[in-house]
C-alpha cells in the first residue's frame, strides 16, 4: 500500500527527468568530468581524451560565450540561430540562441540556459544575457 501523504498515481522520475529538473532549478548545466584525466565533456558516455567511462557529474554556472553563429533554415521555413558556445568549464556545445532575431546574434555575446526548457529535445536552448547591440548607420 502507499504511505500517507504520497501520490501513488505519480509516475516514477527517470534519471533524465531528474537532470532536467536540476537544470531548471538552478539554471545551470550538468556536465561530466573525467576522474582519470580531468578533462570535461557535455553529454558524453566516454571521455573524449582518454576514452575512460569513469565520469562524474558536476554543475556548470551555465553562462557561456558565443564563438560562432549561423542562421539556419534547414527543415523549416522559419529561420533560427545555431551557435557554438564555449562554457567556462572548458567544453563547447552547439546551442540554439533565442531572445533576438537570428541574424542579430554576435560572436562574443554572453548567453545562459533558458529556464523551463528540457534537454529531452536533443538541443540546448540558451538566451542572451545582454540586450541586442544596434549599430547606427549614418
UniProtKB/TrEMBL annotation:
<feature type="domain" description="ChsH2 rubredoxin-like zinc ribbon">
    <location>
        <begin position="29"/>
        <end position="56"/>
    </location>
</feature>
<dbReference type="InterPro" id="IPR052513">
    <property type="entry name" value="Thioester_dehydratase-like"/>
</dbReference>
<dbReference type="InterPro" id="IPR012340">
    <property type="entry name" value="NA-bd_OB-fold"/>
</dbReference>
<protein>
    <recommendedName>
        <fullName>ChsH2 rubredoxin-like zinc ribbon domain-containing protein</fullName>
    </recommendedName>
</protein>
<dbReference type="Pfam" id="PF12172">
    <property type="entry name" value="zf-ChsH2"/>
</dbReference>
<dbReference type="InterPro" id="IPR022002">
    <property type="entry name" value="ChsH2_Znr"/>
</dbReference>
Amino acid at each position: 500500500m502507499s504511505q500517507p501523504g504520497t501520490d501513488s498515481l505519480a509516475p516514477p522520475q527517470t534519471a533524465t527527468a531528474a537532470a532536467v529538473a536540476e537544470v531548471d532549478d538552478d539554471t545551470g548545466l550538468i556536465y561530466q568530468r573525467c576522474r582519470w584525466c580531468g578533462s570535461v565533456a557535455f553529454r558524453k558516455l566516454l571521455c573524449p581524451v582518454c576514452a575512460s567511462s569513469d565520469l562524474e557529474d558536476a554543475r556548470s554556472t551555465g553562462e557561456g560565450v558565443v564563438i560562432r553563429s549561423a542562421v539556419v533554415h534547414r527543415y523549416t521555413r522559419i529561420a533560427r540561430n545555431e551557435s557554438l558556445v564555449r562554457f567556462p568549464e572548458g567544453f563547447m556545445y552547439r546551442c540554439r540562441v533565442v531572445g533576438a532575431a537570428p541574424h542579430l546574434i554576435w560572436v562574443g555575446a554572453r548567453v545562459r540556459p533558458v529556464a523551463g526548457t528540457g534537454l529531452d529535445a536533443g538541443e540546448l536552448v540558451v538566451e542572451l544575457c545582454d540586450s541586442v547591440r544596434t549599430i547606427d548607420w549614418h
